[in-house]
Design brief:
The structure is a homodimer. With about 425 residues, chain A is of the alpha+beta class. The first copy, chain A, has two domains: about 290 residues, 3-Layer(aba) Sandwich (Aminopeptidase); about 120 residues, Alpha-Beta Plaits (2-Layer Sandwich), CATH 3.30.70.360. The first copy, chain A, has twelve helices and 16 strands. At the A-B interface, strand 8, helix 8, strand 11 and strand 12 of A face strand 8, helix 8, strand 11 and strand 12 of B.
Chain lengths: ~425, ~425
C-alpha cells in the first residue's frame, strides 16, 4: 500500500479542542464543568468515542470506565506490546479547555496522521482517556490510571462514595461507561502524555517544550477539628474551643511556617474548608478542611507532613479541641524514564523548538502508568501559569508545537520497535 | 373583687418551657431549630398565642410580626403607659430550649400570677415576643425590637432578603403573622427582660441573679477576599493570590493580635466562612466570611475595628488580593436604666438570692427598647456558659428564682405607678 509522509493536521486538532471545550459549558465565566461521571462528562465521552470511531479505531472501555481507541499494528502477531498515548477528559468545576483534553485529542491527531498517510505502525497505538483524573467528586484523583496500573482494586474503586453521596460504580452504569475489559489487560510497551504545564515555568524561562523527567509527590489530608459551639458574645476568649479559629491557625501555619521555612519546592494549599453550624454569632463547633502538600523530594514532603502533624498536636492541646486527620491521597514522587525523556528532548531539538528539562508540579495519569511501563511527559507553556480556571490558555501555535513533538517521538519509537 | 396574694406558679412555667422546646425539635442532637419565619417558628408562635388567649390576653401583632399579649389595667383611662416584659421565641440552628423563650414564658407566668390572684395591675402589662432576634436567616438580628423602637423603617425591614433568597415580608405573610399594628404604637413606661446569661460569669462567681446594667457594643462585618484560582501543585507560593490563606490569616490575626492585645472585654469571632471553588487541589479564588467584634466600651470596639481594617489593607497589598468589607450590624454599647437595675438588685436581696451587677455579652431586644423606654435585664446562670447549643442548661430552681425576681420587680413598679 503506498504511504505518504506522516504529518500532523494542527487545525483539525485545534477544532476538536474547541468542540470538546463547548461540552458542559458554564452559564457564566466562560468555563466548562465536566466532573467525572456526571451527565456533562458523559457527553464529553460520547463525543471523543464518536471521533475515535470516525478514525476507525477499535474502541474498548474497561471496568473503571477508562476509554481506549486502538489503531492496530501492521504486523498483528499480538507479540508487540502497544504504544499508549493518554490523558483525561474530566474537569474540575469551571475549568479551562486544555487540562487533559489536549493530551487525548493530540493522541487522536497522531492516529489521524497515520490514517491520512495510509501508514500502519509496527506496534498498535492506543489512545487512552482515563476516568476521574481530577478527583473532584470521587477520591483519590488519577483513579482510572491508578486502577489500570494495579494500584487500586477495581471493585474498591467502584465502591467509592462521592462528595454527593453517589456510588462511583452506579454512576458509571448510569452513564453507560461500565465496560467489560479488565483494567491493566493491555500493558503498554511505552506511555507518552502531552499536557499543558499548568504552571508558570516554561513561560518564565521562555521555552516552548517541557521535557518532564520527574513528578512531585502529593499528600492530601482531610482535617476535622472538633470544638464547642457557643455564643460569640458571651464566651470569654480563654474559655473558647473555637474549631474555626483552630482551622484558620493551621492554614496560616502551613503557609507561614511549613512552606515559609522549606525550600521553594514545598507547596501547601487548603482548597476546601467548611464550618459548622456556620452562623455569624456562634463559635464553630466543627471545622473540616483539606490540606494538599507537594514536593518532588520524598524526604522533604515527609518533613512538611511531620511539621503539620506536630502543630496539630500542639494547637489541639492549647485550644482544648480534638483533631482528626484522614489521608485522602499519598503518592511518592515519580521519576520518569530517562531514555524516553532524552527522546523527547532530541525531537524538540530536531524540530528547532526551545526546551527545558523540568519537574511536573501537578499529578498526571503518566505517574500511574509509570508503574507498569516506561513513561514520560511533554509539556507546553500555560500563560500566566493559570490552570483549573477559564483563563487557562496556551497559544494555538504552541499547542501544535507540542503535538508535533509527540508525533516525532511516536514515529521514532515505532521505527525502532 | 376579692384578691389573693400574687404568687408565681413555677411548675407551670417549666411545663410551658418544655412544651415550646419540643416545637421544631431536630432529628438528632436533642436540639430544636425555629429560625425566624420558618414553618417551625410559625408553630412556636401559634403555641405562644394560644397560651396568651388562654390567659384572656388581648393579642396584637404588628407589621413586622412582633406578638403582644396585653393584660389590661384596672384603671383603663389610657393615660398610663404599659409595663412591657419581652424577649423572643425564634432560635438559631440546633438551639437550646431557653434563649429568648424563657423571658417570654416568664412574662406569661407573671400575668398568670395576676390572673390567679384576680388582681388587676394599675398599668397594663404587655408580654412581647419580638421577631427575628437571632438574625440567622435575615439580618440585622434583633430586628423586631429594632423596628419597634424606630431604629429601622418597617418597610425596609419587610424588604430584607434572607440567606435563602426569600423576602422577609413575603414569609411573614406566608406564615400569617403580618399584622396591622404600627410598630412602636404602644410605647412602654418601662421594659423588663429576663434571660439566661449565655455566658459563664454567674456560674463562675456562684451567683443566682445577674443585674444587667449595660450591654456590650456589637460590630458585624462580612469580608470578601478576591484572589486567583490556580492549580495547587504548579503555582509557586510567591506567585499565589490565595483567597483562602488570606481569610485564614485574617481570622488568626483577629484572635492572636486584635483580641490578644486588647483587654479581655474585646471578643472576636468568625462563625461563617466559605471558599470558592472549594476544591481540594484548586487555590481558592474567593473567600467570604463574617467577623463578630464586641466590647462594652465603644472606644475599645473602635480600636478593634481599626486594627482589623489596617490589617486588611496590609495583607491585601502583601498577597495581591482585593478585599471588600460590608457592615452587617453595628450597635454601640447600651447602658440600662440605673433605677431599674437598683430595683432588680433590691428584689434579689429581698428574696435572699445572691446577685451580681454585670454586663451583657449578648445582644438582646432590651437594648433596642432602651431607645424608647427605661429598660433593664435580669440574668440567670447558664451551665458552663453554653448557649446556642442543645446543651444550653439552667437548673429548674434557678429558672424559677429568676421569674420570682421578675414578678417582685413588676409588683414594685406597678405599686409605685
Amino acid at each position: 500500500m503506498p504511504t505518504k509522509a506522516v504529518s500532523l493536521d494542527g487545525q483539525h486538532l485545534l477544532a476538536q479542542i474547541h468542540a470538546l471545550a463547548a461540552v458542559g459549558a458554564d452559564a457564566e465565566a466562560g468555563g466548562r464543568t465536566r466532573i467525572a461521571l456526571t451527565d456533562a462528562e458523559k457527553d464529553g465521552r460520547d463525543l471523543v468515542v464518536q471521533w475515535m470511531r470516525e478514525l476507525r479505531l477499535d474502541v474498548r472501555v474497561d471496568r473503571i470506565g477508562n476509554i481506549f481507541g486502538i489503531l492496530q499494528a501492521a504486523t498483528d502477531e499480538g507479540n508487540q506490546r502497544p504504544l499508549m498515548i493518554g490523558s483525561h477528559i474530566d474537569t474540575v468545576r469551571n475549568a479551562g479547555a486544555l487540562d487533559g483534553c489536549y493530551g487525548v485529542l493530540a493522541g487522536l491527531a497522531i492516529v489521524r496522521a497515520y490514517r491520512k498517510a495510509r501508514a500502519q505502525p509496527m506496534r498498535a497505538i492506543i489512545i487512552a482517556a482515563f476516568t476521574n483524573e481530577e478527583g473532584v467528586r470521587y477520591q483519590p484523583d488519577m483513579m482510572g490510571s491508578l486502577v489500570y496500573a494495579g494500584g487500586l482494586a477495581v471493585d474498591e474503586a467502584l465502591a467509592t462514595i462521592g462528595t454527593d453521596g453517589t456510588r462511583l460504580g452506579d454512576e458509571l452504569e448510569r452513564i453507560g461507561y461500565a465496560g467489560l475489559l479488565e483494567p491493566g489487560s493491555m500493558v503498554p510497551h511505552e506511555y507518552l502524555e502531552l499536557h499543558i504545564e499548568q504552571g508558570p515555568v516554561l513561560e518564565a524561562e521562555d521555552r516552548l517544550i517541557g521535557v518532564v523527567e520527574n513528578l512531585q509527590g502529593i499528600s492530601w489530608q482531610k482535617i476535622t477539628v472538633h470544638g464547642t459551639a457557643n455564643h460569640a458574645g458571651t464566651t470569654p476568649t480563654r474559655l473558647r474551643h473555637d474549631a474555626g479559629y483552630v482551622a484558620a491557625a493551621i492554614v496560616a501555619f502551613l503557609r507561614e511556617q511549613v512552606v515559609g521555612a522549606a525550600p521553594e519546592t514545598t507547596l501547601a494549599t487548603t482548597g476546601s474548608l467548611h464550618l459548622e453550624p456556620d452562623v455569624v454569632n456562634v463559635i464553630p463547633r466543627k471545622a473540616t478542611f483539606t490540606v494538599d502538600l507537594r514536593d518532588p523530594d520524598e524526604s522533604r514532603l515527609q518533613i512538611a507532613e511531620k511539621r503539620l502533624a506536630d502543630f496539630l498536636v500542639e494547637i489541639a492541646r492549647r485550644e482544648g479541641v480534638t483533631i482528626e486527620t484522614e489521608q485522602l491521597v499519598r503518592f511518592e514522587p515519580v521519576v520518569f524514564d530517562a531514555g524516553l525523556a532524552d527522546e523527547i528532548e532530541a525531537s524538540a531539538q530536531r524540530l528547532g523548538l526551545s526546551h527545558l528539562r523540568m519537574t511536573s508540579g501537578a499529578g498526571h495519569d503518566a505517574q500511574m502508568i509509570a508503574r507498569i511501563a516506561r513513561a514520560a511527559m511533554i509539556f507546553v507553556p500555560s500563560r500566566g501559569g493559570v490552570s483549573h480556571n477559564p483563563r487557562e490558555h496556551t497559544d494555538d501555535e504552541q499547542l501544535i508545537h507540542g503535538a508535533r513533538v509527540l508525533l516525532d517521538v511516536v514515529q521514532r519509537r515505532l521505527a525502532v520497535a
